[in-house]
Amino acid sequence: MKKSIYILFAFCAVLLTFGACDRENFGGKEQPGEETVEGTVSLASLKLAVDVAVNQISRAASDVNTDNYTIIIYDVDNDNKQLVSWKYSEMPEVYSMKVGNYSVAAYSHEELPAEFENPFYFGKQDFAIREDEVTEITDLECYLQSIMVTVEYDEALTALLGNDVVTTVSLSDASLKYENIDTRAGYFKAVNPTNLLEATFNGTVDGEKLTLHKGFADAKAGQHRIVRYSLVTTGPGEGDDDGSAGISITIDVECEIIEKDITIDPGEEPTITDPGDENGGGTDPGPDPQPGDNKISIVGDGFDIDQTIIIPADASISNPYPVLVKIAAEAGIRHLHVEIGSSDNKFIEVLTEFMPTKFDLAYPGQYEEGISSLGLPYGAQVIDAVTVDFDITGFTGLLNIYSGTHTFKITVVDNTDNEESQLLTLFTY
Fold first, then answer.
1. What pTM does this model have?
2. CA separation for the pair 197, 203 (Å, rounded)
């Protein structure tokens, strides 16, 4: 016990592109004595089509000017090496290349981490060059690859907003400020598979200063996320005879998802993605369990795990804020993976001096003592267990040293290889 306490306090002490690519004609330089076998690609018929289905609230297809799009040809047979690039409006009609397999990609611009009214579109198509043949490339469709975000307020709330209202939307280190009734669309670069959008409302509502923070997990490239604030009135309470006194004004926030379900990553074929639930939170539960299914559940004890938990400012090592996640697996747990993330890079730096950011509680290895000192279950407490309490109360006082968003991705694998994941999100001021 003394050893565990020592480790915990030791941890507390620690806590206090577009890259330029070589371009070579004909798929690479000809070596001495090597005979180059060539074919031709016809670019005269290449037409860019921009899919604006998700983005249609702010623009139509006819509004998109593709003249300055960048067209790049890659050598698939040579590790997708970039061979040549042009502006779309300056492409040659034909281009000679070595026989082989290639891809042509179109980029709207160099994507920034966050920007207003400048969506990033990308499209890609494979083609082959055959000896003494002309290969034609016709339509190349480009899809939205940014995460599009707009902010809305309902009519009742709009009437009460002061001129100082600002909603700041952030993803990783990038953020955009939507001042007052700002109808512009913001575009964020998708940085990982579980992008966390954070929306912070600050300003005066009916003469009262309010701050509201909420996170929305699993934002994906190609989605339009609508952060919508609405007025909720409760009361009246005790007061004047007319009942006007004691009325409390609160704000609710939701995130609607609109998506095309098609994203294209450079170097990959188009993929169909599963739509998230309409409120933008949590993991799609999939079809209803059938008789004989081995169910896995990951739920908050007394809270909605899909919603961001705001840790009170007075939480500390001696006064931690309780956060308990209940895990159940009918077939017994084989692995319980945890991945810790944070918007504060300093927290991650000091954490890795004490323990890894990714670990398996079933098999913690050399980190067993550190994990135990934080009150987390491990080893025999996890392996084959049907229920497990994932209690991170020991973390909450430590997290309050750093401001920002902190995430715990929990992945359960049962003894039949069923797998379920859930993101737990905490916010500290």
1. 0.56
2. 20
